[in-house]
From TrEMBL:
Transmembrane segments: none annotated. It comes from the Eukaryota. Gene3D superfamilies: Macrophage Migration Inhibitory Factor. Residues 1-93 form the Tautomerase cis-CaaD-like domain. This is Tautomerase cis-CaaD-like domain-containing protein. Pfam families: Tautomerase_3. It comes from Salinomyces thailandicus.
């Protein structure tokens, strides 16, 4: 469902890419109760791309994500996710230098930005229509038989997803009474044009 693109100007090893993809997948999946199978992470080497920051040619490492936004996902949720992505980068790649050093062979490995774009308004992934933000549990319930059938037919991704959903208890609740109440309140406000939707 979400698509994270890691734009890096520094070389990243395969194990660093693996670790970053795993960390970002886990962050998003647990933050929003999304099956890991539907979290996409890509890497783009931008070292040969002419990039400008502040109108001057400069390089930087960035994480950009297209996500599903909606009333059940708060500003605090997105800020926590950004901070988690930054921590994952620092754990895997390093904090970076306080400033770019020139001439001594050291490269600034810092992460310049994490940008989340809430612009996924619809789509199909792995043959299933994407749910609205916050509707993952209901969507899984509606499609559960199809997911299980694909797993039984030998589809490895769906086997892993069915197992993950069971282990994480994703169909048992929608994140606790408080989260469910907040989501219902936000949906009501959106339908009625109240609050931030007025």
């Amino acid at each position: 469902m979400p698509l994270y693109e890691i734009q890096h100007h520094i070389p990243l090893t395969v194990s660093q890419k693996d670790d970053l993809a795993t960390a970002i997948t886990n962050l998003h999946a647990t933050k929003f109760r999304t099956p890991k199978m539907f979290v996409n992470v890509t890497f783009t080497d931008v070292s040969a791309t002419r990039t400008y920051i502040g109108g001057k040619p400069r390089q930087g490492n960035h994480v950009k994500a297209n996500v599903r936004s909606g009333p059940s996902r708060t500003k605090e949720d997105w800020e926590e996710l950004c901070k988690g992505v930054m921590r994952a980068w620092e754990d895997v790649v390093g904090k970076g230098l306080p400033k770019v050093r020139r001439g001594d062979g050291e490269v600034d490995t810092s992460l310049r930005s994490v940008i989340l774009l809430g612009d996924i308004i619809g789509g199909v992934e792995a043959g299933f229509m994407l749910p609205e933000a916050g509707g993952d549990v209901e969507w899984m319930r509606e499609n559960w038989e199809s997911f299980q059938r694909k797993a039984a037919e030998g589809n490895e991704e769906f086997k892993e997803m069915v197992e993950e959903v069971g282990k994480r208890g994703l169909l048992e609740s929608s994140g606790g009474e408080g989260a469910a109440l907040r989501a219902q309140q936000a949906r009501l406000e959106e339908m009625m044009g109240w609050g931030e939707y007025a």
